[in-house]
Amino acid sequence: MPSVNNDMKVKMPAMPKTAxxxxxxxxxxxxxxxxxxxxxxxxxxxxxxxxxxxxNNTEKFELNLSTAELEKRTNKDFxxxxxxxxxxxxxxxxxxEGDKEALKHLAKTAKIMxxxxxxxxxxxxxxxxxxxxxxxxxxxxxAEMSLKLFTAQKGMSGIDMEANMVNLAKGxxxxxxxxxxxxxxxxxxxHNILINMLExxxxxxxxxxxxxxxxVERDGDKLKAVxxxxxxxxxxxxxxxxLDKAAETSTNKDFNEYLKLQSKALRSADPMLDAxxxxxxxxxxxxxxxxxxxxxxxxxxxxxxxxxxxxxxxLLKENGIVPQSKDSLGCRVGIVxxxxxxxxxRIKKYLPMLAEHMPLADKYTQTISSEGxxxxxxxxxxxxxxxxxxxxxxxxxxxxxxxxxxxxxSLQIGGGRRNVYHRQxxxxxxxxxxxxxxxxxxxxxxxxxxxxxxxxxxxxxxENAHSxxxxxxxxxxxxxxxxxxxxxxxxxGSISFLDDLVKEGMYTEDEKNQILVSFATNTFLKxxxxxxxxxxxxxxxxxxxxxxxxxxxxxxxxxISVNLEKMVPTAKKMLTEIIEVQLSGxxxxxxxxxxxxxxxxxxxxxxxxxxxxxxxxxxxxxxSPLLDELTK
Length: 632
Prior knowledge:
By secondary structure, the chain is of the alpha/beta class. It has a domain at 17-88 and 114-167. It is built from 27 helices and 14 strands. Helix 2 crosses helix 6, helix 4 runs antiparallel to helix 10 and helix 18 (431-441) runs antiparallel to helix 26 (602-614). The longest helix is centred in the N-terminal third of the chain and has 25 residues, at 97-121. The protein is globular.
C-alpha cells in the first residue's frame, strides 16, 4: 500500500534515529502535590526554562523538543498539509440528501477511530494529548506546537521524512510492541513466556496472543490475549451504532448491507463476522460512498520476532500456529469519484493475464486466476476522512490500499480484494516544487518523461501486484522482513508487466517510458531509512539493484539517468528473486536478500543531498475541513 513521498507506508527492527541531544529539554522537576496556583506558576516558567510538568496526579510529562526545533518543525516549509474535501466541494454538494446524512454518521466513526488508534500506538498517548491541550489553554506556546505535531503524527512519537524518530515527550520511547503488548515486556522475556506456555499445553492461548486482533496483557507469570472487540468495546459499540444509523439513510443497498455486516462484526469477538464484512466490502463497485475500517500490520515489531527464536519457532510449527502481526486500525470515509474509477477499471481485465505471467507461477496458487470470476474491485475516492493508522503522517501518509491482506479469513472463504485510491493525497503537489526537484536530481534529457500521472499509473500497478503471487500466508515465516519483501514485490510487479500492458493497448510506449522515469526518480530518498520503514527500505533496495544492473545511473553530483531498455528486464529479475524468497518461508533467506541490496552509498547520499536542498519538508498533516463541519 503506497504512501506519498516515496514512502508507501510506514513502519521494522533497528530503532530509528532520535532527535539530536541538543534539542532535548532540561531535567524533569518533581511536582507531586502542588496546588493549582503553583501549577500555573510552573507552567509559565516552563515556557521559559523548557520544563513542562504533569497531569492527573499520576502522569508527569516533559516536552522533548526545544523551542527552536518546534518552531522549525511547525513552520509551513517543514510541515506540509494534505487537505481533504471541503464543505463547499461539488463532490459533497452533489450528493443525494440521504447520502449526506449518512456521511454525518460515518464521519463520527472516523473521529472515534483516532482514539482507538492512539490507544493501540502508545498507552500514554491520550494522557499526553490531554496534557498538551491543558498547557496550550494556559498559553504554553511550546505545548501548542507540540500538540500540532502530535495531531499530525497521531501520537507521542513518529518517524519524519528524513528517518528521524520524533519523540514529543521526554523519556517516552517508541516501543517495538507499541501498546499491543505490555510496555515493560522485552523480546527475550516474551519468547520465554510463550515457550513455557506451549510446553504447558496452552496452545489455544498462545495462538490468540499471536493473533492479529488481540491486545496482550500480563497474567501473573504468563500472558493473555484480549480481543479488540472486548478491549475497545465502548468505542466499537459507538462506531457500530453510527454505522447502523448511516445504513438507514444511505441510498445504496449493497453499501448498506456492508455497513450492517461491519456493525455486527464490531459487536462480537468473532473473526468470522469480520470475514463476512470484508467479503461484502470487496464486492462494492458502484456505490456513491466509500467506508472502510482499515487493518494494516506495519507498526507491530514484536510479534514477528518469534521466528527469530529457533526453539520457539519450532514449537509454533509443531502446534500449527502461524504468528500474525497486530492490526493497526484506521478509518477511511469518502465519496467515490466515477471518472477516476472508470480509468482504474480499464486494467482489471488484464489481471488474469498478468497472474499467468508472474514468475514461478506453476509453483503456487494465487487469488487472481485465469478461470472464474476476477475478484478484484477498484475505486478512486475523494476523501472526507483518513483517520487512525491511515491518517497518521509518519514519514508519509497512505496513498492507496489493497485490502484485505493475505492473512484475513475472508480470502479463505472465497472473498476477493478491493483497491481504493486517495485523490486528495496524490493531487496536492505544486508544479514549481516539482520542477525544482527535477532540476536537482534528474538528468535534463529525461525531464519531459517525468509525469505525476505516470506516478499514479505506477501506483495502480503496485496495488494490483499485491493481489498477484503466492496466496495468503506462505510468507509468514519471513517474520520482521515480511512487509519489506511484499512491498518490494508490489513495486517490481508494477514495472515487470509494462511491456505486456503496452501490447494489450493499456499504455502507449511513451506512457510506459513516463512510468519508468518517474519510478526511477521517486525511488531515491532524502535520507537513509531505518529497518522499521518497510516501504522506504525497499526503495533503497531497488535503487541499488537497478544501479547494479545498469538500468539506472547516478552521477557523482547526484543526477539520475535511466536506461529505458534495461528497466523492465531488471524488474523481472528482481521479482523472480522476491517470489523465491516468499516461497521459501525462510527468514534467513529474506534477511540475506535484504542485506545484499539495502545499503547507503555515496550515490544514494548525493541524490539525497540534492533532494534535501530543494525540499525542506520533514512531516505533514492531514486536514479534514468537511469532516470537521460534519462532526460539529
